[in-house]
Amino acid sequence: MFIASSTFTIANDMAPEVRAAFINRPHLVDNAPGFIKMNVMVPQDNPNEIWLLTYWDAEESYLVWYRNHMKESHAGIPQGVKLVPGKTKVRFFELVGE
């Protein structure tokens, strides 16, 4: 299993709007070949930080989706959201056991 992790911190007072956007997301990725699931998390000690994890059957499935659909999947981001510079991070993982 391949996991893509994105973390970012919201710089302005729009964390509630960003959370609502994830709750009401259009689920565009859900039917992508190889997509397994998505988790969106907010640390209790920093409500302006968002962690997004997407789970895929293989890295290639993620890369195909990323190349073809990343722009449309971000269309629901609320206008005016500002991120803390240097706090955005994308990391990739291989699940080795459950």
TrEMBL record:
Name the domain of life.
Bacteria
InterPro entries recorded for this chain?
ABM_dom (IPR007138), Dimeric_a/b-barrel (IPR011008)
- Alphabetical list of Pfam families matching this protein: ABM (PF03992)
The family database entries (PROSITE patterns) matched by this protein are listed as: ABM
Locate the ABM domain: which residues? Answer: 2-92
Q: Which SUPFAM superfamilies match?
A: Dimeric alpha+beta barrel
Please give the name of this protein.
Answer: Polysaccharide biosynthesis rotein
- Organism, per UniProt? Pontibacter flavimaris
